[in-house]
Amino acid sequence: MPTTTWNRHHILSLADFTTTEYDTVLQTAASFQEVLSRRTKKVPTLQGQVVANLFFEPSTRTRSSFEIAAKRLSADTLNFAAATSSITKGETILDTAKTYLAMGTDIMVVRHREAGVPNAIAAEMDRLGVRVSVLNAGDGQHEHPSQALLDLFTICTLIDPASPRLELLKGKKIAIVGDILHSRVARSNIWSLIASGAQVHLAAPPTLLPKLFAEYILEEVGGKEQGAGSRGQGAKGDKLILSSPSSPTLHSRLPTPQLFLHWQLEPALQNADFVMTLRLQKERMTAHLLPSLREYHQLFGITRTKLQLCKPKVKVLHPGPVNRGVEISSDLMDDPEFSLIQSQVTSGVAVRMALLYLLGSGKA
Ligand code: NCD
Hints:
Elements lengths: L18 H18 L13 E6 L5 H12 L3 E6 L11 H10 L4 E6 L4 H12 L4 E7 L5 H15 L13 E5 L6 H13 L2 E5 L13 E4 L17 E4 L6 H5 L6 E4 L3 H4 L4 E4 L15 H8 L3 H4 L7 E3 L12 H4 L7 H20 L4
Bound molecules: N-carbamoyl-L-aspartate.
């Protein structure tokens, strides 16, 4: 394991993650990936500790991934599913968390459909003065740090399997395509990719882009007033995001423009190194945001033909679950030459082992 000091007690967001923290996660995950390639895939690192998976929202891969990660570290695991819990009898979320605290939980992995629930539990644990760590496994439309970290690890290990590190993404073009409005995965990925020095291009129909982004836009690219110019991104309907007065952190991290907004897919795909597709989150759509799934697939669905705009060795990621034939064509999803979807799931275990290890090892 890399010898390093880790000072973060909860992992709730990537907004203030440092380069050192990203690299520590990547290196630690690489060590665990090596462990997972052995015949005996288990280490005693978190023996005696309790990891509780508090999932108030459905999940297949994230919940199972945290569970197997905790088991590979020899922790004891508790799995909670809201539908079969005392939440249905009126127990509050904080009382549920305190129940798990009373059973000796050391790390709470929390998913909830409302943004801010993991932060609220973490604040309560801090108020009680207990050394319980909270890990955000996806809160509403806010963040999903472990997914963005496993995406980062998947990409970095593809570039340099022996030494995955943040700087490998500097200057790479990454397109994030689809339902950005509802995507906590996109929000966490924006933080990590910007921190890496990558060029991040968001592409979605205007109805699936957060209104909040309008305030970030300082300059319109393309059109009459400015040609493609040195940035080479210009096309009518594209927006260039430079900074926001209300987001000094983002501003200070953007010495050059790194975040671009597109209402069409093509300029985002042009010469892209990686394409991240996102699921259409129909369960979060309160209004009719799309004319039809067919039209959406035609305009924003990722297909082999559309990938020809990208770099020849382009790879496609998707956090899953996938609506086959909607955000990505079914054949492309299953093609290992382009699709990293299965590698993402595999990488997820090593990355989550790293996160649990970094939070848990200080508690011994
Ligand atoms: C994502 C999530 O739940 O935010 N999935 C995941 O964690 N693997 C994305 C999604 O649900 O579309």
